[in-house]
Fold:
Amino acid sequence: MRWVAACAVLLGGCTQQAAEPTEVVVFAAASLSDVLETFAADFERMHPAHRVVLNVAATSLLARQIAQGAPADIFLSANQEWVDYLVQRGRVQGAAHVLAGNRLVVAGAHDQAPLAHFDFILHFKSIAVADPSHVPAGMYAKEALECSGLWDVAAPRLVPTLDVRTALLSATSGAAEVAIVYASDVPVDQRAQVLLEWPAGCAPAIHYVGARIAAARNPVGAADFLTLLADSANVQIWEQHGFAKANP
Structure:
């Protein structure tokens, strides 16, 4: 029940107070910000006793925080590697779930001309990208550039950022000429457009993975929220936000 009776013994009466919703604390990759707002609203309508609290940042930063004991109920990673990092440290409870996919694109300002071929990226002197040393979006970008045989030329031109959303902002604000980001990121900034889809032959397999944290303070809420995210009936929500169907 959302309401509980509280008897004031000294006053000889009873009053009714609303029970505070139990928080479900979700640590999630920055690229999931908008789709999670939709899922959180749906979840809270279905489970009024719970309130979803989102903490979004680079996957790598969040994984390290959880490893150090940060209070999280769920971890939503932009790759499998950082989930494995927490599994190895005993921080994950149960099996992880692949929730959705994505794809890489080259993005720029809305007034830029589309690129006819991927090699055109080499005409730019500054390419924003999430830090490829540890942030999944940047790690995927490095993988794709290496596959395309362009890493050695592109690496000196890269402008590393804290996360993928910051990379997109760099391109639309003029801090960088273009950015390598997820397709799902571009619609959230009206100043941005896709200049080029990454060639299929070198497009990395991008997976978003969700896991419950072993030290979760709200394990029931965490399990229910993950179930909602993984439900095949909700694929349309992911796709409406620019994500792809999960492909484990």
Summary: The chain has two domains: 22-101+206-240, 104-202. Confidence is low (pLDDT under 50) at residues 1-18. The domain at 22-101+206-240 is CATH 3.40.190.10 (D-Maltodextrin-Binding Protein; domain 2). The chain is about 30% helix and 30% strand.
